[in-house]
Design a protein that fits this description.
- This protein has 150 residues and is mostly helical.
- The protein has one domain: Alpha Horseshoe (Serine Threonine Protein Phosphatase 5, Tetratricopeptide repeat), CATH 1.25.40.
- Helices cover 44% and strands 0% of the residues.
- The chain contains seven helices and no strands.
- It starts with a helix and ends with a helix.
- InterPro entries: Ankyrin_rpt-contain_sf.
Length: 150
């Protein structure tokens, strides 16, 4: 269970969601919330952070938070065998990742200096629950997800 009041209190006190967490597969809490489909946390970060979200941050695999959102959305669309479905991997509905992508896209449009050029979700603006994504990222490899599930 998430304590959203505590998160809001921390953000109101100036907690910076951009701080990089060393030795983790995901660079900061923005990546973590995106990967796990924590829509309410993302709303809090976007709404209450006193610091502009840094959407230029990249994982060790050179992926942005937009790439992570797209990979998680693609993974959510896949049919998974029972033994895979039991693993600690993202399990939110596709629509959650669509909303996260839309939120990130709207933030990027409002603050264009916060995102790397060309960064963005493939379907984040449509609200669609089907991926029409970029051809090179239409399939999510297990390696892309397993390195952040550590």
């Amino acid at each position: 269970k998430r304590d959203y009041r505590l998160v809001r209190t921390l953000l109101d006190a100036g907690a910076d969601v951009n701080l990089v967490v060393a030795d983790e597969g995901l660079p900061n809490v923005l990546f973590w919330a995106t990967y796990w489909g924590e829509l309410e946390l993302m709303k809090l970060f976007v709404t209450y952070s006193k610091h502009r979200l840094d959407l230029t941050v990249r994982k060790h695999t050179n992926e942005t938070v937009f790439d992570v959102a797209e990979a998680s959305r693609n993974f959510a669309q896949m049919r998974k065998p029972k033994h895979i479905a039991k693993l600690p991997l993202p399990n939110r509905p596709v629509v959650v990742y669509d909303k996260i992508c839309q939120m990130l896209e709207e933030y990027r449009q409002k603050y264009p200096e916060t995102a790397a050029e060309g960064a963005g979700c493939a379907t984040g603006q449509t609200g669609s629950t089907t991926a029409t994504g970029r051809g090179d990222k239409a399939t999510t490899s297990p390696d892309r997800l397993s390195d952040v599930a550590r």
